[in-house]
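Below is how a single chain appears once it has passed through the pipeline. First comes the sequence as given, then the structure the pipeline wrote out for it. We keep one example in the README because the format questions we get most often are answered faster by looking than by reading.
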Amino acid sequence: MAIYHNFRISTNLQNDRFAIEFIVYKSSNSDIRMNLIYSLLKRTPFSWIETPDGLRLHICDDLYVYHQVRREYRFADLSGNDMVIDIGANIGVFSLLAARQGVQVLAVEPIMGDELCRNIAMNGVHHNIRVLECALGDGRETEITWGDRRRRVPTMTLSQIIDDMGGCTFLKVDCEGGEWFINPDELQGIHRIEMELHRKGNFWRYQAFIEGIRNNFSISYDPSPHSSIYGIIHGYSRGPLG
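Resulting structure:
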């Protein structure tokens, strides 16, 4: 057993398994520690890890997303009747955790689709998650860069994505600035929002965007220590949930 501050790692060689226990807390310095540990994981002979809540994730550059999702997003109020859209699903952590609660999930991801699909298959929730390989945008093709990957991908508006899903009650958005394509009017009918808001708009545009959301949602806000991100919006609909 090795302990790295608030991150604990144990190995079980019998099943070629890497079991990881995370003790998550809000500290910007913890990201540096996590990135170091994930870099070390890639040098091991193991192909996947198992988290303490039972997720199995292939080892890749974006494993840190598990820590990020657990720390930043609120989703304990998900119910079996929810229709979840996860925009910027990445390797699928949020989608997997939601699908295990029995909800239907549309995972929207333009770059990490291969890793996302492998994780869905390995966790046995393919009946609850459908993958849409595109980006949030204005409907025109665009070039997306993520790490050392660059790809031209199709985009869809939020309204088009919701139509593809057949509705949405819970929206999670983490798409590196793509959220600025959202018109707050498109959020009608959604009762929960979890959204990372990036600094791609000026302050007045940011204020207008927040006020547009506030028209229909009670929101709280967790500021981010990262210079490129305003923070995380947690939104709860003011209207009836039915």
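The radius of gyration is 18 Å.

See the next section for the split statistics.
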